[in-house]
Amino acid sequence: MSRYTLSALCLLLCDAAAAQAPVRSTHDDLVSLYSEFTALTVPSVTAGVPDYTTAAMQQKHDALRQLQRRLAALDTAGWSLADRVDYRVVKAEMAGMEFDHRVLRPWSRDPAFYVVINFQFGPKMHGAAGLPSLPLEPDRIPALQQRLRAIPGILTQAQQNLTEPAADLALLGVRSKAREEGLLLEFVDELRAHHPSLVPDAERALGSVRSFRTWLEGIRPDLRAAAGIGVENYTWFMHNVMLLPWSWSELETLGERELDRALALMAFEEHRNRALPPFDVIDTREEYVARHTEAQQAMLDFLQRENIMTVPDFIQVSPPGGFQTTAPLDYFQNVNYRDPMPLLPHDFLVHSPDARRRSLDDRPIRGARRLYFVDAQRQDGLATAMEQILMNLGSLDDRPRARELAYNLLALRAVRAMSDLKMHGNEMSIMEAFQFNIDNTPKGWLPENSSTMWHDLELYLRQPGYGVGYLTGTPQMEQLIAARATQLGSAFELSTFMDGFLDAGLIPISLIGWEMTGIAPDLPEAPAPARSALRPVTPAAPPGSTVHLLQTVDTLEVGQQMQLAAEVRAPDGSRRDDWIAWRASASSYVSVAADGRIRGIRPGTVTVSAIAAGDTARFQVVVVPARSAPVPDGLDGQGVAINDFATLHDDRELADVADVGQRISVQDEQVGQFPDFERAVVGNTFRRESAIARRGDQSLHRRHAELDQTFDRDDAADAHLLVQRLGLPTELRR
User: Fold this and answer.
1) Which one, of 465, 426, 384, lies nearest residue 96 by Cα?
2) Residue 700: φ, ψ to 5°
3) Model confidence over 572-590: pLDDT tens digits?
4) Bridge partners, residue 592, by sequence
5) Backbone torsions φ then ψ of 566, nearest 5 degrees
6) CA-CA distances (angstroms) from residue 549 to 42, 609, 618, 619?
7) What predicted TM-score, i.e. pTM, was given to this entire model?
8) What Cα–Cα distance (Å) separates residue 131 from each residue in 197, 207, 326, 388, 631?
9) CA 355/CA 204 separation, integer angstroms
């Protein structure tokens, strides 16, 4: 064999070996796959109408599964840590799209998804946009005309697609369409003045919005599907999309603990400040602007003086917008009009600068707009955490009573987080969550017609995890700072840490921590729950039915079980007890079974509701510690085993404490003979959920009774009347 033949054979063998050798994946392969994925999230559009039909969504889901398999096949061995973090970001966003198709299914469950006039946060169909200012340049008129002409087709398809709408989501859809109707009415008048040729198209669009709202109002009384996604699905979303380590139940415990802590700290601060004069509340726009600009400058000076972080040149003092003069003030006005500094970091240092940071980030994955709420912890979690971090560093030290507001804000965030959890655990309807927030927000600063609360609860119900983002950001940041400070010891510098954290981009805090410490996040892995995991609810009673309580309890011991009874009286005179849905405002204190069996779990005061056909009957239950230990198995009550003496001793102590708690409860009802400090320290265990114990004045006690009556009427009200009575959500992000 000649040497040329040998050379040729060698080349052939080498080529064959090369063809069979695995090709190592690169970060460029990930970027290419991510580009395909982001394109997949966009529906096809015909004549301005996006395709959310069942067939189209099934095709998207099938294509997603193929992309997920290709992602899993990428070989990341040898990749840099930053590239592996990018991989995890892409995986989380794909999991978010999977969750959209498997659980949320907004195109078939959520009428508010079909937003034709964009005016709010939250999930919405592709192409939703606000109405333009008039007059328009001639070259922009055809695009507006196409948008207006597409609206009837969008809403016709929406009615066909919405095969499983949930009752509370339908209520939000009614509110959304009422707002769109008002915007279009105003827009039609403007078009008459500037572009009269577009008026017929706008009027047809307006008519289709009205028809859609009327359709929703008609079907809503008969809807049975639960709006919440269920505990198992919620936990899966936390672990796989938001990349949080906590389960639904762990988050509930965290929320309750954080609320207790916030209320106690607020009571301590009020006690320390008891000799100080009350807050000087802003009452003019001039003072509002002056105080806010002063606070902004003071914050910038503090950051630079204390070397906390590098302040980019796009964070600058600027006059605030908006000033509310009508009473009652909504929650954030109640805070800001006393002192704007505690809340200032939220938007001034995080939300507003984040938009600029993203626009300057040219990394193909990190600089992209995050999909499926993957960056919630980085945005809202950090925004809330910065309020606490800067306060602990001294930002409020020279502002009398400002810490009281900071702890008030902390309590509000805990209450809102629990609303998120309880709505998705199907323990509360949206109206019950509304009342829960009013009852548990300190100082009575959340008015009964709060547009802030409507806006927030809509977000929480339609986007799982939004509310808990305000709760989990602080512990995540504290864990990360602690880990990094431990690693570096005396070399740790806060400014270097903060700059590195912000430079990592808008990705989950757990992934930023991985990149900064080298410690991969420990996230539980479990298979996705079946689609049927959405919890079934009680059959619907006929519209116009009323709920009547037959048997209730006032006091319940831990471990004690009793039977509740109620009936529904229908308009035709019939009476049924199987139409009742029982709910408790705090499931960690009592459990209420579907048949009305109630069991005490731990001390506290809760509201129990019997619900049917939009009507609600409520009563309060006080859970107290068990007064005697149960007789151990195998004993006849005449003797006690030696190792049970400690249990009996503990129970006697608990019984003594229970007596103290009952005395405090009685005195609370007699309008706060205990000072705030003593009540928070001694009585908080037993009266944690009592709005009276938190506010401590007789006028608010009377107001609660009035609110109970008001919301009983609201629960039975027509959805359209609710829109008019309670107002509409404003563009707030807190």
Assistant:
1) 465
2) -70, -30
3) 888 887 778 787 876 667 8
4) 598
5) -155, 165
6) 50, 10, 8, 9
7) 0.74
8) 17, 17, 27, 38, 70
9) 36
